Amino acid sequence: MENPPQNLYIEGNINLLNKLGIAIVGSRKCSEYGWKQAKKFSQALSENNICIISGLAIGIDTAAHIGAMSDIGNTIAVLGSGFNNIYPKENKELYEKILGNDGCVISEYSPNTKVDTKNFPERNKIISALSEGVLVVEAKYRSGSTITANSAFKQGKKVFAIPSNIDSKLGIGTNKLIQKGAKLVTNIQDILKELNINICKDIEQNWKYKEREVPIKYKIVYDIMGNMPIDINTICSKTELPIQDVSEQLTMLELNEYIRSLPGDMFIRV
User: Fold this and answer.
1) What kind of fold does domain 216-269 have according to CATH?
2) Model-level pTM?
3) Contact partners, residue 74, CB within 8 Å, separation at least 6
4) What architecture is the 9-204 domain classified under in CATH?
5) Are 54 and 25 in contact (CB under 8 A)?
6) pLDDT tens, the chain, 270 aa long
């Protein structure tokens, strides 16, 4: 990096810093397609012994971290604040889950440093610097994800992008990156071949749905939900539970991949 941080604060498995890593980044307000692809690529790369690096943001970052931990993989989260001020707050559970899964959390800021959006571009440079390459799943024009990708270009790293619908705002950034020289990818083979890595496991086996029983403590909220989006206020009204209890259950249901959050505080079953 140019102007690297003077200090790095690290929690968890420091040995992951010596492991081959791929960064996966993208829009906070991602589409269902973007979430699915981020999780799919993350899980497949992780199963090929590659550490997944991202920024703990909602949306694509969250999908990448979750996908990395779907089996036996680990993940690194890079923060733009101190450990005592996790951002966003709704990802505090994900932060704890990463550490509980032998993962690693990194920040250049001391533990009590508060959230400041001015820190995020520097955080993004660290994400790209830690990786062998950056995969951008969905990104708006001139977004934080394109900052990460441009940092990777400057650092001499590989940049990969999943093509998007040309009519989608979330596709402008990725399609522009492809025009700029990012490698268009449709599967992990495209990434691994570019990095001269042998493929150990096939991507296709990663996307088989497994029927799981929802834990009973979350069923009150889960049973209210269906295949159509529902907002948190409606869930509170139907369950007659306080909003903080509903919010906590929704967070845990999403982290365990029973539901998906959508823009506007809407939720839907996976």
Assistant:
1) Arc Repressor Mutant, subunit A (1.10.10)
2) 0.77
3) 13, 16, 19, 46, 51, 52, 68, 101, 102, 103, 104
4) 3-Layer(aba) Sandwich (3.40)
5) yes
6) 888 999 999 999 999 999 999 999 998 888 878 888 999 999 999 989 999 999 999 899 999 999 999 877 889 999 999 999 999 988 998 999 999 999 999 999 999 999 998 999 999 999 999 999 999 998 887 787 888 999 999 999 999 999 887 778 888 889 889 999 999 999 999 999 998 887 665 554 444 444 567 888 888 899 888 777 899 999 999 999 999 889 888 988 888 778 888 777 788 887
